[in-house]
Amino acid sequence: MNERKEPLDRDSQKEHEPVNSTQPSSSWYSRFFGWVKSHKRKIAAVFGMISIIIIGLGTYLAMHMDEAPLPHGYRVMGIDAGGLQPAEVLTKMNEQIAAFEGITVQFVPDRTDNRLDPLMEQTFTLKELGFTFKNEEAVNQLHQWEEGNIAHKWKLGRELAEESLDIETSLHVDQMTNAVRKSFGTTIDREPKNAQAQYITPFKVKYEEEVDGWELDEDKLEQSLIQLVSKLKSHPDTTQTMTVRMPLVTIPADLTVKTLKTRKPNALLGEYTTLIANRGEGHAHNVRASAKALNGAVVSPNQQIRYSDIVKETEEQYGLMMAPVIENGRMVDGIGGGICQTSTTMYNAGLLAGMGVVERNSHSLPVPYVPLGRDATYSTDGPDLVMTNETGGDVVWTTRVEGNRLKVQVYGQQLPGITYDVITEQRNSPVLKISNQITDKIAPEQSSIIVDSYRLKKRNGVVVNKERLPQSRYKLHQEERIEEKERY
Q1: Domain boundaries in the chain?
Q2: 8 A C-beta contact, residue 380 and residue 477
Q3: pTM of the prediction?
C-alpha cells in the first residue's frame, strides 16, 4: 500500500536543510543593527553632546590661546618673560631702557692739573652722552605673539622657550663730543702757550715758561664709554654715578725756554748812524718817536720786521707832528716828516747785520743824510721797508738819539768771521752832491739818477758773496709829479 507523504512547509524545510559551514553567520549584524535601530535616538543625542563638547573645547582653547602667556625660558634684556603677557614685557623693557639711559657718568682728569678740576663739577646721563638702548627683534617677537593664531603661537612658543635677547646699544659719537665740549670748552681743548723771552737788554733776558696744551681724544672717549656700558649690561647698577677718565692728548708748545736760550744774541751784528737835520721841532719829534718805537724790537729766526708796524706803534704811543715831506715831487709840510730817517737808518743797520731784504724803495728825490742808494722811504698804504731775520737766533734792535745823531744797532748770533759791507754804483755822472739844506732847486741838468747797490758778504775779510740790492732811481726836478707822499 502506497503511503502519501505530505510536503513540508518552507520553514520546516529550511530548518531541516543541512547547514553550510562556509556561510558566515549574520546574527550579530542583525542584533547590532537591530540595537542601533532601537536606540537611534539615544545615539544621536550622544553624538550631539560630543560635538558640542568638542566645539566648546575648541572655542575655549581659541579664546584662551589669544591671552596665553609667553613660554617659560624666554628672556629679554635680562627680564624673565616666561608667564608674562607681551604688554607686560614691553613695559618692563621700557623701564629697563629708561634705567640705562638715566645712569649718570662723571668725568675725572687723566692727569694732575688743577685746570681740569671743572670736570668734577658736572655729571651726564648716558642718554645725554648719545647712548640709545633697544631690542627691535624682541619687540617684533612680542607683536607676533600677540597677533598670532593658535598654530602660530604653538610654533613660536617652542622657538621663544630657548630665546634670550640682550639689550642693544648704540652711541651717537657727534652727540657725545658735542655734549662734553659744550660743557667743558677750553677745559678739555686748551691751546699750548709758547715760552716768552723778554729782552731787558740784548744780552739780558727774562723768560716765561712754556705751557703745554691738550685736546680731547674722541676715539678713546668713545672706547671708554662703550666699555663702561658693556660692564653695566652684565652687572647693571643704576643707583651709583659711574666715573670715566677724560682722555686728553697733550699738545706740546712749539717754543720752549730751552730753545729760546739757544737763540739769545751774543754779539753786535751791525750798526748805522745818521745826522738829524735841523728842520724844526716836528721833524725832531718824529725821528725820536719812531726810534723809540723801534727800540727793543725782537725778530725771531725766519720772521719779518715791517716798518709800517713801527709807524703804527709810533702813532699810537707818541703821535706824529707836522714836518717837511715830499709830495708830488716837492718839499711841503705834512704829518710824519722825518720818520723816513729812522727807516733809512734801520735799513743800513740791517744790511750790515745780514738781515734779508724783502721790500725796500728809494725816495723819489735824493735825501741828505745817506749816500745815494742807501735810503729807504715809507708812505702810508704805499712803499714799505720789510726785512727778514736770516740768522739762526733772535735779532734785537736798539736805537739811541744823542744830540743830532740817530744810531740803530742790531744784535744777534755772530757767525765766526762773517761781516758785511755795502757798495753803490751810480750810473749817471757827474755825481750829485746833496746839501743838508733843501732849496727849491736841488737838481742839476740831468732828469734822474739810477744807483745800483750791492751787499758784500765777507769771511775773514775775503768776499764770498755779492748780493744785488733793490735799485734806486731819483728824480732831479721837483716839478716832476710824484704820486706818493714820502715822509722824507
Answers
A1: 75-251, 263-486
A2: no
A3: 0.66
